[in-house]
Design brief:
Order of helices and strands of chain A: HHHHEHEHEHEEHEHEHEHEEHEE
Number of helices of chain A: 12
CATH class of the largest domain in chain A: Alpha Beta
Oligomer: homodimer
CATH superfamily of the largest domain in chain A: Response regulator
Mean pLDDT of chain A: 95
Structural class of chain A: alpha/beta
Strand content of chain A: 15-25%
Radius of gyration of chain A: 25 Å
Number of strands of chain A: 12
Shape of chain A: elongated
CATH architecture of the largest domain in chain A: 3-Layer(aba) Sandwich
Helix content of chain A: 40-55%
CATH topology of the largest domain in chain A: Rossmann fold
Largest sheet of chain A: 6 strands, parallel
Low-confidence stretches of chain A: none
DNA sequence: GCAAGTTTTGCAAGCGGTTGCACAATAGAG
DNA sequence: CTCTATTGTGCAACCGCTTGCAAAACTTGC
């Protein structure tokens, strides 16, 4: 079926090693030999079998790209950036969808069967145990969008969600709201927990302000809408920090449906600054998460770790900032 | 590093073949042998190396998932469905991002180096040449969301875009619009061409109705918005068939910005029915594309083709239907 | 033109598995 | 308890490629 090394060698009248060497860079081959081999390879349409060579080199250039966020549009951008970034460095993403998966063991086994060189866990909702399971299996791993920590157990690249919570609280305070609330994503997600605690810790500095909390059961439009509809039944807060942009948009839709006005009756600030947030029909005030930097840095960290597997776990945390749009009343 | 067949064999005190056979189903092993081997494997934490075995079996279970649509939210759903569907059948998606790629040769070479068993081209904007290039390289291929045809050259699964164009035209006629327009995506995409030609052919039946056309340069929010802003400078049509939902939303944003009302001043009908289309703050009337069926059918076709590589190319076309929401005035 | 030093090249073993073939072990029949 | 039919098992070759080692082929300097 496919052309092999051996056929090229025969055609060029040289040894198999010679052919192998012309296709591995850094190997010593004379110019004449290289010409002969390349000619034969050309004629036969040969290209080396990466899997076979991985057997002896121990490297596949395959990277597991593991996620469970397939309903948050920001992750389409994330996948775009990851696949392009990895490709550009000669790495191949093996995509693993962990929706509804609770046990890391299966994916660990599968990715080891395919001898991936490394794994990127790209998720803000997978528990840290997943990333650790890969590390324990001896696979280099980077957790992108994971929980920041001063002494991480695996490489983590992302944002400081606690600080984002504080930032949101400060934004609301600057705008003079006196009854504010946190509307979080799934309570089990570390990102929700951290945003919540940051928000509360900042609000603790303003004891006169009333603060309430509730949680949607997913980072999704429907969950946000449902939760906000529920909140609107009793007296809602003046402004909400929503755990995520999709959630915010769901909440917005509920508010608009109830004939209330944003930002006059209720203010919303989201988190992520996904592409859609700046669409004029949405125009969401939100906290920008620098996903491009996060992804690039993750890839860079992955590549370094491949070359130096015993590198100590590292946390790379990027700063966020408030993007002023139309869903919060202006600061005075 | 990783445990190998040989170590398991030694520990269990049996031959390597015996171990291999207990891990390939359909092979003949006695119950006693199986127990011994499984015990040893368990203790050592062995799991077979899929890549090594592919060398002799000729099957990797790797499927190239090739796309260039990383900015249309509907493709997040598509990737979700594909990855889960493939995983469920024991296949592994190797994701290839073809954004900005014009020459299929590179990806063909790369996917052959990784000995993928098959390739799914999931894109409505990649030219048919890409799918054909894989076929020519002897790799089973399914083009999802490709151009429908009575005698396809490769397997195609998708919708009849010409018919969708007609359907949109009929929807506008039923609602009594007298000046309508087509606002398409990139002119080079076969999907745009087909939707356009269907729309025009149906409109040819209504010679009294004025019809105009224009094209955005991508299936994206920005492109739709930009094009609609341009159209609004001179006298716009009463209703637009937009080539796609994201495009529609871009157009909507332009319209709302210009203090015009939808659907009273201008009507919009989209195509795809992506998740967002039903979000209350968008509420887009659109044509539903059954992506779940398309993806499942694509996977099913892929699997059949793997078992029977010489199968004739087949087109599987699924019907679409108008989803009535708020961006078109109601039919009388 | 020769010795010493420097590439190049081929050989052969190995990477982790699978599998046809021949032989061993067991089962079934009488 | 034989004799045949049916599994079950091990040997060894092979899948496509890499690489340490030693020999072959070049350089270079004198």
């Amino acid at each position: 079926m496919a052309v092999t090394l051996k056929e090229v060698a025969e055609r060029a009248g040289v040894s198999r090693s010679a052919v192998s060497r012309t296709f591995t860079d850094g190997a010593s081959v004379s110019a004449k030999m290289r010409r002969k081999v390349e000619k034969a390879a050309q004629e036969l349409g040969y290209s080396p079998n990466a899997l076979a060579s991985s057997l002896t080199t121990g490297r596949t250039k395959l990277i597991g790209l593991v996620s469970n966020n397939f309903h948050n549009p920001i992750f389409l951008e994330v996948f775009d950036l990851f696949t392009r970034g990895l490709q550009d460095r000669g790495l191949r993403p093996l995509l693993v969808n962990l929706t509804d998966e609770v046990d890391p063991a299966n994916s660990v086994r599968m990715l080891r069967q395919y001898s991936v060189d490394g794994v990127v866990v790209a998720s803000s909702t997978l528990p840290p145990g997943f990333a650790k399971a890969f590390r324990d299996a001896g696979v280099p791993v980077v957790h992108s969008f994971g929980r920041s920590s001063a002494s991480p157990q695996v490489h983590v690249v992302g944002i400081d969600n606690v600080e984002c919570g504080r930032m949101a609280a400060r934004a609301l305070m600057e705008r003079g709201y006196s009854r504010v609330a946190f509307l979080g994503g799934p309570e089990a997600a570390t990102s929700t927990q951290d945003r919540h605690s940051g928000f509360m810790s900042e609000m603790a500095l303003h004891p006169r302000i009333s603060v309430t909390c509730s949680f949607a059961d997913a980072y999704s439009f429907d969950a946000g809408r449902r939760e906000m509809l529920r909140l609107l039944k009793s007296k809602p807060a003046e402004a909400y920090f929503c755990g995520d942009d999709v959630l915010s948009i769901g909440a917005l839709s509920a508010i608009l449906d109830s004939d209330l006005n944003v930002p006059d009756d209720i203010g919303i600030i989201g988190l992520n600054d996904m592409e859609m947030a700046r669409w004029e029909n949405i125009d969401l005030t939100t906290i920008h998460q620098p996903i491009q930097q996060i992804v690039n840095s993750s890839i860079e960290l992955m590549v370094s770790t491949l070359n130096e597997p015993d590198r100590n776990p590292e946390a790379r945390i990027f700063p966020c900032s408030v993007v002023e749009r139309g869903t919060l009343r202006p600061a005075p």
